[in-house]
Design brief:
Blueprint lengths: L31 H12 L4 E5 L8 E7 L4 E7 L5 E5 L20 E3 L3 E2 L6 E2 L5 E3 L18 E7 L2 E5 L8 H10 L11 E9 L3 H7 L6 H4 L19 E5 L2 E7 L13 H6 L27 E8 L3 E6 L3 E11 L2 E10 L5 H22 L2 H9 L13 H20 L4
Antiparallel strand pairs: 1-10, 2-3, 2-5, 3-4, 4-9, 6-7, 7-8, 9-10, 11-17, 12-13, 13-14, 14-15, 15-16, 16-17
Helix pairs in contact: 1-8
């Protein structure tokens, strides 16, 4: 599946007959058995984004990442040679978690010359090599050269750090990302290093929250302030301007509302004072005119691109010169951890900093509006009152996403020779 233009006749969905137009089951979002299959079929075999290179600003930097769906904890380091590497967060002596602060389930980050186990003091270099065993002479036939940290496949792309827990990934990260997402590689992500982070534990399946950001059909009734006065009309309509599919990945483009051109009485006072809002600061930084990969549909009055990288990463790029990263980490069949990171070109004045912080505040407000629906969706699906549900044309990405998940699980089941 690659780029396409909407035909004069027909719909977005009908342009991809393999997706079908029938009702869809969301059993994959409520089944504990299906979740167990997702652990192996998807999260232990697929490239997963665990952070960005800005989290490793110098040699000796490290951070840890908990991936409960894969029953894994990962250490990501920048070695003395500048290379970014990843390892399982497990000491080779007795299997203790190597790096943690507060409690073993808490992530940590810092700068160190060596990684030291809290339990018995074994030490490891930033390249994973075992460098010190306390009272080494008491061990039998011990070869430190064979007791380095267990490496995890790790690659970087456009400053994003990915890991793959498979013994041997079937394809490189760039091959996996494909041409649609790959076209963003030279986008100036590296210039946007001022970060605002949010985390929330949600009582819903990980796919339910992703579904909330895969369509804008919900915008008029749920986000009434986003579209202005016309959205107060119960017949208000909103349609995204471009949809695109590429393998298991998806994207959608929307136009911008340019809220700063509205009369002040239609805006929040804070928006007028800060010159900022949910679409970002009104005064966009100069990041150049040649922005590779964005607005692939050539949308007039383009506002946002939402690139959804399978399985659990979304990169939202805004016309106003900033971007957002979403990650959804499953913890059970009906719970997950949501991470949202907002990135801006560093503020050069107090006014710019206020504009960034106000955008972060409004992001949280709109995010809470979306989060407010998640429990209700999970509870409604779990009643079993309805087995299948209709999807409109604007929900093509929802249809494609659940089919991509099912295809991966089905392939894994066939590989194991199971029904």
């Amino acid at each position: 599946m690659g780029r396409f233009e909407r035909p004069d006749e027909g719909t977005w969905t009908e342009h991809y007959p393999e997706l079908g137009t029938g009702f869809v089951s969301f059993e994959d979002s409520i089944s504990p058995a299906f979740f167990e299959l997702e652990r192996e079929a998807i999260f232990r075999r697929t490239w997963l984004n665990v952070g960005r290179v800005e989290q490793l600003p110098r040699e000796g930097s490290y951070f840890t990442k908990e991936i409960p769906v894969a029953r894994a904890s990962i250490i990501v380091t920048r070695g003395g040679d500048g290379e970014v590497r990843a390892f399982y967060n497990v000491c080779r002596h007795r299997g203790n978690k190597l790096l943690w602060e507060g409690t073993p389930r808490q992530e940590t980050a810092g700068v160190a010359r060596q990684l030291v186990c809290k339990y018995h003091g074994w030490r490891y270099g930033l390249d994973g090599a075992c460098t010190f065993v306390r009272q080494e002479k008491e061990f039998f036939d011990l070869d430190k050269a064979k007791l380095g940290l267990v490496a995890v496949h790790c690659e970087t792309w456009a400053g994003f750090v990915f890991v793959n827990l498979a013994p041997e990934p079937p394809e490189s990260l760039r091959e996996y990302l494909g041409p649609m997402v790959g076209a963003l590689e030279d986008y100036p992500f590296h210039r946007m290093t001022e970060r605002y982070s949010f985390r929330a534990e949600n009582h819903s399946n990980w796919k339910i929250f992703i579904d909330a950001f895969q369509e804008y059909y919900h915008v008029p009734p749920l986000h009434t302030q986003q579209l202005g006065p016309k959205s107060q009309n119960e017949d208000a309509e909103f349609e995204a301007a471009h949809y695109q599919l590429d393998g298991p990945h998806r994207m959608v483009s929307t136009s911008g509302s340019w809220k700063h051109t509205w009369p002040p009485d239609l805006l929040y006072p804070g928006e007028v004072l800060s010159r900022s809002g949910n679409l970002g600061p009104w005064d966009a930084p100069d990041i150049g005119d040649d922005l590779p990969g964005v607005n692939p549909g050539g949308v007039d009055r383009w506002g946002i691109d939402n690139f959804q990288v399978f399985p659990n990463l979304e990169i939202l790029i805004y016309e106003r010169g900033w971007y957002v990263v979403y990650r959804y980490w499953p913890s059970s069949h009906d719970t997950h951890l949501f991470e949202g990171d907002l990135y801006f070109v560093p503020a050069r004045s107090a006014r710019e900093r206020v504009a960034h912080e106000y955008a972060a505040i409004t992001f949280k407000e709109y995010g809470l509006q979306d989060v407010g629906t998640l429990d209700g969706t999970q509870m409604g699906l779990e009643t079993g009152a309805c087995a299948e549900f209709p999807l409109g044309d604007q929900e093509i990405l929802v249809r494609h996403f659940h089919k991509s998940v099912a295809d991966r699980v089905d392939a894994y089941v066939r590989e194991r020779g199971e029904v």
